Amino acid sequence: MAYLLGGWRLSWPSLRSRLSASRTATGDAVAEGGVFFDTGDEVWKLLEQSGVEPWRINEAFMRRQLEAGVERIEFVGEDIFSVINSSDDRIRNSYRAREIRWLLGNADDYGYELIGNVWVKR
């Protein structure tokens, strides 16, 4: 089974996760018989209109996956530091960048070590 949120690919039984700048990860998840999690723009707008910060959904989803102990979390397509330090505000302030920053600040607490573009469960 695989889940996808904001490009993060978390899959079982392989217990690998992938963050991609493209929708290729969605196709991979489906091809592997998985399920992908994507709230879509309409749901995000409804959340915002009701006073709920959509980021809370991203954060809760990632936290649950780390608690589940996926073996690897990979970012593919771009260097993570190029994303979070981009001179383009749209990239630097994207949900993708926010997810990377969240992992940089929290993955270690769940026993993950960053090696290149991959957080590996210790």
Structure description:
It is a single chain. This protein has about 120 residues and is an alpha+beta fold. It has one domain. It is about 45% helix and about 20% strand. A 6-stranded mixed beta sheet has the order 1-2-3-4-6-5, sandwiched between helices. Strand 1 (about 1-5) and strand 2 form a beta hairpin. Helix 3 crosses helix 6. The longest helix has 14 residues, at about 55-70. The chain is globular and about 40 Å long. The two termini are about 25 Å apart. The relative contact order is 0.17. Residues about 1-15 have low confidence and may be disordered.
Keywords:
single chain, 122 residues, alpha+beta, 6-stranded mixed beta sheet, 6 helices, 43% helix, disordered N terminus
